[in-house]
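#help-structures
NK: newbie question, is this the right format to request a structure? protein is FAD-linked oxidoreductase
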Amino acid sequence: MTATGATWRNWGRTESVRPLRVERPATADAVQRAVVSAAASGLRIKPVGSGHSFTGIAVAPGVQLDMTALSGVIDADIGTARVTLGAGTRLHELPALLAPYGLALANMGDIDRQTISGATSTGTHGTGLGFGGLATQVVGARIVSGTGELITVSETERPELLPAVRLGLGALGVLVEVTLQLVPRYVLHAVEKPAPLGEVLDGWLDRVRSADHFEFYWFPHTEAALTKTNTRLPGDAPRHPLGRLSRWVDDELLANGLYRGVCALGTATPGVIPGFARQVEKLTGDRDFADFSPKVFVTNRTVRFREMEYAVPLEAVPDAVREVRALIERKGWRISFPIEVRAAASDDNWLSTAHGRATGYIAVHRYFREDPAEYFAAVEAIMRGFGGRPHWGKMHSRDAESLREVYPHFDDFLRVRDELDPERRFGNPYLERVLGP
């Protein structure tokens, strides 16, 4: 199905494009035809997921592939806990799709609007030192190359491509299927409570090492961090979910409704932000509940923002956060969004932000109507001092030359790109910046 392109915008309103045309393939064959047709016309072609990347990684000025129709469960093996999904499957669809098999993702981030292929291709992750990013759960894929060839990649077919294809930035081809290694469905016991920021930073390594999943948020202009500790329990463990009213008050009324209003007010009158942050410090936290993992990992977020996230060595997190705090105080900035801090296991995917090292993640945000440039650039300079690697789907200013310095297999990835997309059929300005021409 082909249509003239309307203007496409990503969720964070940082990127927009009017494609020459939009195609909506429903089969792998249709994707192959679209790629061959684009090549014959001398056009570039790119798939688009949910638009949740803040960078231009999915921008498609030529042919945009809407992958919505390529979704759902294609194959499932309960014995091995492996499920093959259409690449356009949204993460928020997985609980219902996987329930009949009694399976779940081993880990998740706190947003589930992305497609599975978009999430894995950009390095989306959750938190927990025993778990890598979503791409580490990929054990196989089918991908259409720049010449229109349909290639199967798995542990037994072209396994040498797996470290690149699992997290391929959309630069290697169009994913049409993704096979995931899942786990039996499980319950998470969540404990959320405030703690002094200094205490959390001093005990950072102990906290992340002793918990299945630990993260914290710090609102600038306050002295407290909101800590979140999730403990994994069997799928038949007793559940004590949040009540409907409690969840609505905390997650909708306060976290979205009131917060949206204060962010908008703070854009015009920045002086209100520190006082609001101190009120949030008093109102948030102190929740204890247990539910199936997706209902604990995921938070509904409707306040639009822009984000930059950096991955640094795990042990560098306390010093990096302290430097960001000192930066904000020194500059006198009024920052309405919290800083989010998480952790993940080392992995061997070539362009993973956690490649070869246990990793801490530090994410900074700004309301989408505020200019993030000065804040993000200054924080980025701090993170680069710790050997930081930027999240591929979040805002940053790095280029291929500087990224090669922090990725040992950067040139190995480029060699796979040369093989699968020699004419750069899947290229765009963002990929040219971060990978080179």
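mod (FA): yep, format's fine, and the tokens are attached above. The chain has two domains: 73-184, 187-390.
NK: thank you!
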